[in-house]
Specification:
Number of strands: 9
Catalytic activity: carbamoyl phosphate + L-ornithine = L-citrulline + phosphate + H(+)
Number of helices: 12
Organism: Candidatus Ornithomonoglobus intestinigallinarum
Domain Aspartate/ornithine carbamoyltransferase Asp/Orn-binding: 148-302
Pfam families: OTCace, OTCace_N
Radius of gyration: 19 Å
Strand order of the largest sheet: 7-6-5-8-9
Largest sheet: 5 strands, parallel
Bound molecules: phosphoric acid mono(formamide)ester, norvaline
Helix content: 40-55%
InterPro entries: Asp/Orn_carbamoyltranf_P-bd, Asp/Orn_carbamoylTrfase, Asp/Orn_carbamoylTrfase_sf, Asp_carbamoyltransf_Asp/Orn-bd, Orn/put_carbamltrans, OTCase_ArgI
Structural class: alpha/beta
């Protein structure tokens, strides 16, 4: 495992061992035990999109591991003015020990990982968001005491979160149901890959347009913004189409009585979720946000340590 580009590329064992390491690092962090396993190493962090959680958790995580995080805004580096990914990769590998990248085209991250001899971590593309899902699986494990056999229902846009959740659930042994409007279904190739992963794991994947069908018997109800970064011009149109996909008391109440509510954040209360659900007692959104730190420390330790 050189890079973390997609959870589909990892074996079930690799995903499980990253989760175990994340939980161990979290426990040790709470006890004040330090691990400077990345001492003297530098992680370059390329952002062509905004971020709160990803930037802060990677910077803090790298610092806690004794390394140095270098923030690289695409406005400030030559990549943003048209320097090729190939040349950027060949230059950065001479200085850095790893690259984290958040950008639009997934193919750019794949190309960067192919061209660079150092580890590349996908910190969100239009297609996938694997680091978030590692944190989410860690959170589900902590609250449910295990993952195998749980059911996660995702309701909303067939976006990067839906895609990575499908991959992550299959590898970690959860069943998954995804409800999207017909116009905003998941990517067909991701669905094909995910179906193969669920078949290999002996778990089920359900794709539907009916949010109530998806949340039936769910242990976790997950949603995300209807308007992802880069889709701002589609906002009005999408809000109309997604009206029936809001996670409100009625929909959340149709899941198991002890179901958790999850959201990667940032959230838009009154759109994809109501205040009553996201700020309610079964919402674990801030545990998910915290676990970005611990899960990504595990990823960096595994790839760069
Ligand atoms: N969930 C997440 O990736 O948040 P940011 O966009 O703030 O990094
Ligand atoms: N789907 C959202 C996730 C943000 C963390 C986006 O891509 O904007």
């Amino acid at each position: 495992m050189k890079d973390l580009i997609s959870l589909h590329d990892l074996s079930a064992e690799e995903v499980k061992s990253l989760l175990e390491l994340g939980l161990k690092l979290k426990d040790e962090n709470k006890k004040g035990i330090e691990h400077h396993i990345l001492k003297g190493k530098t992680l370059g962090m390329i952002f062509t999109k905004s971020s709160t959680r990803t930037r802060v958790s990677f910077e803090v995580g790298m610092t806690q591991l004794g390394g140095y995080p270098l923030f690289l805004s695409s406005n400030d580096i030559q990549l943003g003015r048209g320097e090729s990914i190939h040349d950027t990769a060949k230059v950065l590998e001479r200085y850095l020990d790893g690259i984290m990248i958040r950008t639009f085209a997934h193919s750019d991250v794949v190309e960067l990982a192919e061209e660079a001899d150092i580890p590349v971590i996908n910190a969100l593309t239009d297609l996938l968001h694997p680091c978030q899902v590692l944190a989410d699986l860690m959170t589900a494990y902590e609250h449910k005491g295990g993952l195998e056999g749980l059911k996660l229902a995702y309701v909303g846009d067939g976006n990067n979160m839906a895609h990575s959740l499908m991959y992550g659930c299959a590898k970690a042994g959860l069943d998954c149901a995804v409800a999207t409007p017909a116009k905003y279904r998941c990517d067909a190739e991701v669905v094909k890959n995910a179906e193969a992963d669920f078949a290999a794991a002996g778990r089920t994947l359900t794709l539907t347009e009916d949010p109530f069908e998806a949340v039936k018997d769910a242990d976790i109800v997950y949603t995300d913004t209807w308007v992802s970064m880069g889709q701002e011009s589609e906002k009005e149109e999408k809000i109309k189409v997604f009206g029936g996909y809001q996670v409100n008391d009625e929909l959340f109440g149709a899941a198991k009585h002890d179901a958790l509510f999850m959201h990667c954040l940032p959230a838009y209360r009154g759109f994809e979720v109501t205040e009553s659900v996201i700020d309610g007692p079964r919402s674990v959104i801030f545990d998910e946000a915290e676990n970005r730190l611990h899960a990504q420390k595990a990823v960096m330790a595994a790839l760069m340590g």
